[in-house]
Amino acid sequence: MDESLRRILQLLQDLNSRVKTPIISESEFTEEYENLDEFSELPRQIEVLVGKLKCVNSDDIDTIVENLIHLHLKLSDCIWHLDQIHELVKRVAGNIRDVAN
Description:
Layout lengths: L1 H16 L8 H14 L2 H14 L5 H39 L2
Helix pairs in contact: 1-2, 1-4, 2-4, 3-4
């Protein structure tokens, strides 16, 4: 998934460079590439949490809930990263006609 998002971001950057008025600033692209570096860490972090949940004693409800909350937060981070790229795609799609060469 990480590589697909990078390719999408590169495609958007290429399209952005071909229009007379850029839709997305270079600083936004830089920020999104940095975000993708964070995104690439999430699968490992999720696997650690899943491993903890597999090993926890079923009677230790507090630990189960705590790990489920952490898992929820990591999954929310994944959604946020996907949404960031999705928003850029929508911006380009919605504005490219207005700024095309």
